[in-house]
Design goal:
It is built from 10 helices and 10 strands. It is α+β, with helices and mostly antiparallel strands. Helix 1 packs parallel to helix 2 (about 105-120), helix 2 crosses helix 3 (about 125-135) and helix 7 crosses helix 8. It is globular, with a radius of gyration of 19 Å. It starts with 6 loop residues before the first strand and ends with a helix.
Length: about 290
């Protein structure tokens, strides 16, 4: 039997919300959602090295985030405590996904840590078990654990794997950070969208493929409204999650690249990304 690896370098992909409806608010303050998650090939990358001394070390800290508050550290510590392992890990991150961008970067980082350490520590836990741990870190963590495009309900944890079209996307970050908490606490946020079926959602197009957070975010963050209007010149544009990132779909890589090239010299950052139905993390781990 080959020796277990001591270091894994793994992707932590982004997601887009192709639609996001808020259908209610629970007594605990969380919101009931309906959304379509699609994985894209824009990723952070984490290198995770096994330690024998039980220490959880983040070698590349993030500005403005305390060590103990970082989702990478919290995920590793949670799995260590839940499994009872005496092992630890040193973790490095090559960061590409913006913080507060609505791309799920922090949740994806946490999911990659959980799945990577499950392999390095040879715990043998199922994705279902890892997702049950992950939901305590963030509502988006389970979709990255399972690694499939999905229809999601509840707070985003009730997942049904689906197959979406896989266009090319232009994704724009207007260099502002949006607080998810503030958006969901906003008194003007609409919380009464009528629930729809998954089948109806998968038909695509307006009015189903909309984001109920978009009106509030555009009002509170003018640079996002400006970017949405600019991108809408080329294709229907939409916010992902609570923002700040927004996107539009294109039929070809060339068409997406041509639009992204128009942003040269602009005060926004743009990526061209491919829609996926299976996470590159699944592929990297051979799942």
């Amino acid at each position: 039997m080959p020796a277990a690896p001591r270091t894994l370098t793994l992707p932590a992909p982004a997601k887009l919300n192709r639609m996001l409806h808020i259908v209610g608010r629970r007594q605990d303050g969380y919101h009931e959602l309906q959304t379509l998650f699609q994985i894209i090939d824009l990723c952070d990358y984490l290198s995770i090295t096994l330690r024998q001394d039980g220490v959880i070390e983040l070698i590349t800290p993030m500005d403005g985030v305390a060590h103990a508050d970082n989702l990478i550290v919290r995920a590793a510590t949670l799995l260590q405590q839940a499994s009872g392992t005496p092992l630890g890990a040193s973790i490095m991150i090559e960061k590409h996904l913006p913080m507060g961008g609505g791309l799920g970067g922090g949740s994806s980082n946490a999911a990659t840590v959980l799945k990577g350490l499950n392999r390095l520590w040879q715990l043998g836990l199922s994705d279902t078990t890892l997702a049950e741990l992950g939901i305590t870190l963030g509502a988006d963590v389970p979709v990255f654990i399972h690694g499939r495009s999905a229809w999601a309900e509840g707070v985003g944890e009730q997942l049904t794997p689906i197959t979406l079209d896989t266009p090319w996307f232009v994704v724009i970050h207007p260099h502002v950070s949006v607080s998810t908490r503030k958006v969901f606490q906003d008194p003007e946020l609409t919380r009464d969208s009528h629930p729809i079926t998954m089948a109806r959602a998968l038909q695509g197009g307006a009015p189903e493929w909309r984001n109920d957070c978009e009106a509030i975010v555009k009002k509170r963050y003018p640079p996002i409204a400006e970017a949405l209007d600019w991108l809408a010149q080329y294709a229907p544009s939409q916010l992902t999650g609570t923002g700040a990132c927004l996107f539009a779909a294109f039929d070809s890589q060339q068409a997406a690249q041509a639009v992204a090239a128009e942003l040269t010299g602009q005060h926004w950052h743009a990526w061209v990304a491919r829609g996926l139905n299976t996470s590159p993390l699944q592929d990297a781990l051979g799942c």
